[in-house]
Amino acid sequence: MRTALANSISCPDEILLRAEALFCAERSELSRDVLSEKIDLLRSYDVLAMERVVAIVSWGRSGSLLLASYLDGHDDVLMLPELCGQGIYSFFDRYRSLPLRDKLIAFPVSESDYPGMFESAFAVSPGQYYVAVQAILEFYGNWPREFLESRRAFFLFVHIAYSMALGRRPASSHPLIVYAQHEWSDVIAASLAEDFPQAKFVHAVRDPISSCDRMFHFLLGQSAVQFPRTYVLAPYSAVCCLSNKDRPHFKMESRTRAIRFEDLHCDTAETMRALSDWIALPYQATLVDSTFNEKPYLITRDGNTWSGRRLEQVQRQSQHLSQKDRALLFTLFYENFVEWDYSCPRAFRNPIVRFIVFASLFLFPLKMEIIAARAVFKRRILPSIRRGDLWLATRSLGAVGFCRLKIIGLIAPVFLQRCAHPAALLQVHREEQSIGPEQVAEERRETLEVGGS
């Protein structure tokens, strides 16, 4: 999803020009009084003690945004709304040569794939964000360059600047940062754990059938603007989002737990209470309110609008899946159904039944493939034939066949691997002893003092 960003904004000069143009008015109106107010707010943070980070990770369409929204209103939590923070690490890797100031003002304008900091219902004032950045630069200007230009500092200051732009003062000097990772990535997880050794990972999981069905539906909507290139691959992408992403990140097993989408709707209070205990966050009543920037996070679907808990959402969704497709998902993710306590027909306990269903993959396409292929045939192949453009029609037909091959190439190795070695799945319940941030902060202070002396 970040391809568009890489193609459209590959030059640091270009992204800085966009950022400078956006903040031009705010820069000219910046007053010393306003800056002093932000610096006073900044004194509430002890950046060396800010070790607590929890990353929210999705598994298909599994409610990761809903889970993050429940954490938003807590007075000891820092977070960016929705998916605004998902690109922090990719942005830093692309523009690591920029100084801290340029990275902080450029990052918000780089968020081209999702509503950014200054758009959507949860936007913050660009002026307030710019003043917050200036306060950070002035307050920490004399700190060692090695720290200020580090990936860890950038991560911290993006979240702090956003919180300061909202005028929030945290309950403690080392609040918990909720990081919108969402995308399953061993590389991002390793980077986060390197920067924050106490980082934890919470994966939102869901009934595999519902997760696949909703993911396909989501991808169809996202791919409509790039029809048919990404549209025809929507069935493959829907299954790919689930395959081999139902396990903890590499070497992160001891700091990982999973939360079921259904529990977020059916037993919100107890689910969030257990999670708050695990991440050492005092329980508050706000943990059952679905918000971003303390504004309700609203979902609209099929003419209905709601926020937070909705029991209808736990029903199995399969409108884009045939009975054969569901059987294939029961086969491929049998261990998931059992481990995560989702209903699964007893017949799939038999490995022979699962192998027979798997073999049908080579003979019959998925309903998702048929839906995508029909759309391509109607909107691209038929019009091309009528115009006499046989090359485009043939190429579009080839794309449909290519998707079929990709799905087989994806599912077959996953199934065979799971037959040989049981999958090390995410665990819904796991406890871990928390380490206080003060101890790590003291070690970081000693390191900075040595580096700056």
Average pLDDT rating: 88
- Summarize the amount of helix as a percent range: 40-55%
Q: Classify the beta-strand content into a percent band.
A: 5-15%
Question: Could you give the order of strands across the largest sheet?
Answer: 2-3-1-4-5
Rg over C-alpha atoms, rounded to the nearest angstrom: 24 Å
Number of continuous helical runs:
20
What pattern of helices and strands is seen along the backbone? HHHEHEHHHHHEHEHHEHHEEEEHHHHHH
Low-confidence stretches: 1-9, 430-437
Largest sheet: 5 strands, parallel
For the termini, the CA-CA separation is 44 Å
Overall geometric form? globular
Number of strands: 9
Judged by helices, strands and strand pairing, the structural class is: alpha/beta
Structure description:
The protein is an alpha/beta fold and 453 residues long. The chain has a domain at 3-206 and 252-302 and 428-452. Helices cover 52% and strands 8% of the residues. The chain is built from 20 helices and 9 strands. Helix 3 crosses helix 7, helix 7 (126-139) packs across helix 9 and helix 15 crosses helix 17 (351-359). The two termini are 44 Å apart.
Task: Provide keyphrases for this structure.
globular; five-stranded parallel beta sheet; two-stranded antiparallel sheet; disordered N terminus; 8% strand; 453 residues; alpha/beta
